[in-house]
Specification:
Blueprint lengths: L1 H26 L15 E7 L3 H12 L7 E6 L6 H7 L7 E5 L5 H11 L4 E4 L4 E3 L3 H11 L4 E3 L2 E4 L4 H22 L11 E4 H7 L11 H11 L4 E3 L7 E4 L4 H13 L7 H23 L5 H28 L4 H25 L6
Parallel strand pairs: 1-2, 1-4, 2-3, 6-9, 7-10
Antiparallel strand pairs: 4-8, 5-10, 6-8
Helix pairs in contact: 1-6, 1-10, 1-11, 2-3, 6-11, 6-12, 9-12, 10-11, 10-12, 11-12
Length: 363
């Protein structure tokens, strides 16, 4: 049966990916800071904000409470219509080196570009206004760069939310993305990163300017990673609980879907074969599960094949999640991974298709 053969080939490709990511994760050593460390780097933290009046207070408080004050803070107000600009101005006295800019271009990518170009630091760290870094965040990244000089450092991001099923499933889904990106970097095939917690040298960014696809409203992080990768730059994942940034779960299903559509919309311009292979494999293994369920209405043998594909994929996902659950503080991994596996095929197919045909905007 041709379809069964195709299903098993795709499933095998998926297994190879997950096993590879798991091996990559295990290869990455935990980074431990040296006592009495004092990073001797020129570091700039760049944050682009649009209508983030409520979230910005928490981020700025977290930055004020960092274990090091030796960094430049660059805040870019991207045409906010609320009090974001006033919030920025209100903390000027809290930071020894702070720059507040009003975006000249349109959109987040242009705002980040303006902030990075104006930054004085040799090492740039980016995050989002709705994120909260741990107190050791900047110091840990600086120490890591001194010990392991890198062109780009993929840093850990975790989701925090209420104790609801929706929030828990978001946390697990997001963790699979972050862990897969980390594992891929661990076997020298980086395919994913998140601008919510990313560090890179300014020289690396300047050398990648022509590859950042300004015509795309998002993807500054991914395009930077792929440009540095193409030039064979050094890309590492920082495995340390002292470098975490926490972001909130999406409050509604609609906002969650829109965020994922934004992430998907830029995939049409990717040319890296490892990224394309990974995306296609994940999409196809989900599509095949849906197709098998549909075919099972007419032929029960397809239901048996669906069970095989579902169980094998679930066990593969569980393999990766079990290895990273301690680092990302996941709970009830077996049950929650199973629940996610039930919903994931439908979610990924809908998001992939609508993300490619929609025109997402940055709020």
């Amino acid at each position: 049966m041709l379809f069964a053969s195709i299903a098993l080939i795709v499933l095998s490709a998926y297994l190879i990916l997950i096993v590879t990511f798991t091996i990559g994760w295990k290869r990455i050593p935990y980074f431990e800071q040296k006592e009495n460390s004092n990073p001797m780097l020129n570091i700039s933290v760049v944050v682009a904000c649009r209508n983030e009046e409520q979230n910005l207070y928490q981020l700025l408080a977290a930055l004020k409470n960092q274990t090091t004050s030796a960094f430049e803070l660059v805040l870019v107000n991207d045409h906010s219509t609320d009090n974001t600009r006033k919030v920025m101005e209100s903390v000027k006295s809290d930071f020894a080196d702070i720059v507040i800019l009003d975006a000249e271009g349109s959109g987040k990518k242009q705002a980040l570009k303006q902030g990075i170009l104006s930054a004085k630091g040799d090492l740039i760290i980016t995050t989002d206004a709705d994120c909260i870094p741990v107190s050791t965040w900047i110091e840990t990244i600086g120490d890591f760069q001194l010990e392991f000089p890198s062109d780009l450092i993929i840093c850990p991001v975790s989701m925090s939310g209420e104790n609801t099923t929706f929030d828990t499933l978001q946390q697990f889904e997001f963790t699979t993305l972050v862990a897969s990106g980390a594992g891929a970097a661990g076997v020298n095939m980086p395919i994913m990163c998140n601008g919510a917690n990313l560090a890179f040298t300014k020289d690396a960014w300047l050398n990648s300017q022509h590859d950042l696809h300004d015509e795309q409203i998002s993807g500054d992080d991914m395009f930077l990673l792929l440009s540095i990768k193409k030039r064979r730059g050094v890309i590492r994942f920082l495995k340390s609980s002292e470098a975490f940034v926490y972001t909130s779960t999406a409050p509604t299903l609609k906002s969650f879907i829109r965020q994922r559509q934004r992430w998907t919309s830029k995939s049409t311009v990717y040319t890296d074969w490892q990224v394309i292979f990974t995306a296609c494999t994940v999409f196809l293994v989900s599509l095949i599960q849906i197709a098998l369920l549909a075919f099972a209405i007419y032929d029960l043998s397809y239901l048996y094949l669906f069970v095989v594909v579902f169980v094998v994929k679930y066990l593969a996902d569980l393999l990766l999640l079990s290895k990273v659950s301690g680092f990302f503080e996941l709970k009830h991994t077996i049950v929650n991974a199973f629940m996610l596996s039930l919903l994931y095929p439908f979610y990924i197919v809908v998001v992939a298709i609508t993300g490619l045909i929609s025109k997402p905007t940055w709020r």
